[in-house]
Amino acid sequence: MAEKVALSKLYSALNEKLAKLFDESGVRRSFTVPYIEGQATAEHIKAVGTAATQNGGAYNNLITSAHHSGGKGWGSGDGHTVAHPADKLRTTLIPKGDENAKAAIDAAQKYLDGCAKLLGDDDPTILTANSQLKLVKKSDAAGMTLFDFGVFLIQITSPPTQAIGRAHSGTKPGGHSPQLRAPNPGTAPEEQESAPEAQGEAQTGGDTQTPQPVASAAPATPAVAPAPQQRQG
Hints:
By secondary structure, the chain is mainly α. It has one domain. The protein is built from 6 helices and 5 strands; from the N terminus they run αβαββααααββ. The protein has helices at about 5-25, 40-55, 85-90, 100-120, 125-135, 145-165; strands at about 30-35, 60-65, 80-85, 170, 175. α1 (about 5-25) packs antiparallel against α4, α4 packs parallel to α6 and α5 packs antiparallel against α6. It starts with 6 loop residues before the first helix and ends in a 57-residue tail after the last strand.
């Protein structure tokens, strides 16, 4: 049996690392909406939308959502959705050697590695994402604004996530089938499991779906990030 890849846990970890970077860089949160044990996905998203409206709107904030590492996971109250003001993120530069930036880059790489186990190392979306991430690794994002860095990491993970979503075929109680669809219509590969666990009610609709961004709660960005341009501080 192929190795199981908990994509949503990996994506949750990326969100968690970004939020920690923003917090410890001195950017005060616009709001925090905690998960509630057993709360429906729609209810949490509605609460996030209300909080965003009261704090400048979704497009004036960068929103991340994650369960705490080592916590109870999907369906529990062990996590939250948080927002940081975009204007503050745009004016705060990442200093050289920032350990939180390094941790976020590492989390993004682990997520891409998980996607590669399902799509293959030679998948175009994986090759592009790894190439883009490699550019940032050279300097550990030093000189980039927090906003550019956060959006960049979210952007480069999007195409592989979408590719995996397209590859899933069939459904089962609770979410997608773990089997991936072949490039052409036909029998799906046997026992190729992703078994992604939900990264949070606001980001997935069930405990086996691939991670998705919070609905109407993230900045509008292109599907593939341009090569980042570092800024000198």
